[in-house]
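Slide 14.
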Amino acid sequence: MSENRILYSECIRIYEVEESFIESLHDSGLIHVVEEDERFIEFEELADLEQFVRWRYEMDINVEGIEALHHMLGRVRSLQSEIDRLRNELRFYRPEM
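Slide 15: predicted structure.
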């Protein structure tokens, strides 16, 4: 097993989720499952997976809602990044701010 991924079955056991939930996330493109001899989930996917698990099991949000929230949060992050860039540019031209 690679050092930067976890077995799919271990992930299901650790997060105590139904396999169908992770399959739904995979089918919608929210989580990528690597298939070799066995199935794996990359460690870089785990933060998103943990958030999706909380949304599903603590807030009872379905996969379609999770997909919409994930998209909106990505857009908010992008816009915040643009605001920060524009502020820095403005400070360059108007240092008294």
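Speaker note: The chain has a mean pLDDT of 92.
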